[in-house]
Amino acid sequence: MQVQIVEVGPRDGLQNEQKVLSAPEKIRLIEMLAEAGLQRVEASSFVNPKWIPQLADAGEVCRSLPHQSRVRYSALVPNLKGLERARECGLTEVALFMSASETHNLKNINKSIEETFPVLRETAREALALGMRVRGYVSTVFGCPYEGEVPLDNTRKVTNELISMGVYEVSIGDTIGVATPLQVHQVFAALVKDVTTERLAGHFHDTRGTGLANVAAALDEGIRIFDSSIGGLGGCPYAPGASGNISSEDLVYMLHGMGYETGVSLEKLVEAGAYVQQLLGRALPSKVLQAALAQSHRRQPESRAEGGKA
């Protein structure tokens, strides 16, 4: 049984970090992710740098992505201008995004849901005409930091609109990490009535510690595509209190233990997590990463200074 992992750390993970990594550091991280066997990597975002300064170097990063035929790189774009920038960098896939919650959409995009549809439809039409693949994101599906509970009908409407625009896949997001497995069952059971499981993905945050349990629930509903972030990096600038995405290391460990194939080397993934942790200068949330680093540390022989005092 195969599960696809979409690595969103270079974009969703780094966009909320106070420390801004350099373009060469980001490119090296992406190289390590590709070397680990990840075949889908979201490299950056072409939103206005004024809003997400951590990703102001999107053009430089995307022009320097490692050339590996088996790896598909993508970037987030909000409109035609973002699409043009992504195309100039040679990307062949972009992602569109909006919220199931009206207030979060206004905070995030500065437009109502109804005002967002024409912008995304125009962007998707142009991208498809250029021969590009288009993915869609729906945020705040399971709860909104401003409105609380979000009606399921909102998600169904936005998802169906995105599908009608020609997106090949819609990622269903628990932006603030409030979902429980029961909710996940309910939401995906409803969505698969409108959209085939092959065109749906799960995007979970681990704010309340239910991220992997929610993946297991989505697997039960036939979902086989999940977004995750190296080290558990992440959060949303427009969702106060939202912590990181589920960790790629934790996700791969769990999936392999459940008998699923991912094509990803957990050992190399841990190396990538250790690299970005060192760059950021703080411990990352990934439990598998921290366990592996602790085990590695225990294995290292103690250095002894000869002659008594060092």
UniProtKB/TrEMBL annotation:
- Which InterPro entries does the UniProt record give? Aldolase_TIM, HMGL, PYR_CT
A Pfam family per the record: HMGL-like
Any GO molecular function: metal ion binding
One of this protein's GO BP terms?
L-leucine catabolic process
- Keywords (A to Z) from UniProt: Lyase, Metal-binding
**The organism of origin for this protein:** Brevibacillus borstelensis AK1
Name this protein carries in UniProt: Hydroxymethylglutaryl-CoA lyase
Q: Which domain of life is it from?
A: Bacteria
Q: Which CDD domains match?
A: DRE_TIM_HMGL
Residue ranges annotated for the Pyruvate carboxyltransferase domain, each copy included: 3-270
Q: Which Gene3D superfamilies match?
A: Aldolase class I
Protein family: Belongs to the HMG-CoA lyase family.
